[in-house]
Amino acid sequence: MGSDMGRLARPLCGIIPPMVTPLEDRDALDVRGLERLVEHILAGGVHGLFILGTMGEAPSLSHRLRHELVGRVCAQVDHRVPVLVGIIDTSFVEALSLAQKAAEAGADGLVLPAPHYYPAGQPELLEFLRHLVPQLPLPAFLYNLPNYPRAMFDPETVQAASDMPGIVGLKDSSTNMIYFRHLQFLMADRPDFALLMGPEMLLAETVLLGGHGGICGGANLLPRLYVDLYEAAHARDMARVQTLHRTVIELGRTIYRVGRYESSFLKGLKCALSCLGICSDFMAEPLHRFRGPERDIVQKYIEQLGITANGLTVPG
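The structure assignment produced for this chain is given below.
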């Protein structure tokens, strides 16, 4: 099949938000909310859009709904920015089917994690990539997700995979800067291979150390904040980096920590978007949205931080 490399910049740089999936119920999109969310994110000047990742609750969505989401988002974005589609699945065949749907809908790239559930060894993961990648219709970014569960690409596996036509970068969600720096060392002779950071609290450090950008969940809520931080770090404007980074940290200390469980970051983000009237905060089961008490706390933090549907009311 072979991948179409034509539309995607090499390396892909900047802020590519991992979009949440607005839901009306367990198998229906909040269509109006989805449309508002896409325009809200694009208005922030982002450099791409990533759908069906962890923030998008992809593993909990039916294949039918995933296909519908891909079609709607690609049609609405209409090539204003590159659209990346996560093909997160335990099934080789289903991952390939979603990749084909993404290509047909007009997406620009794919995001490919190690298959979860069974703990595959690194030689098995490399063989998996050698079987799958030649059949992918679009270029793909590897997705390092060591906590969901044990779906990790070792640095040497990434280096070997980068020689495959069609593998163009990696998103790292490990929070391990030693791992990320090891990758930078191994990929030093591949300036076309994008190394993108997942955890947004490491965005500034990543860009200052030569990384290509971030796939930052908070950019669903405040896209301009993360674009400004990326640009300040790229320009090495340290005073502005420190000011903007402080706001990113405040989001992490407040809205992301309202609940008691690991899902709090996603629940808080969806709740904040709902409080601002952008989209529904319905969660795919087994997760559940915040009830009244938690929602009140999120609303309080929104007001304290000066967040509106148009961005921050106070300068970052």
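Interim note for the steering committee: The first strand starts at residue 14 and ends at 15. Residues 238-253 form the longest helix (16 residues).
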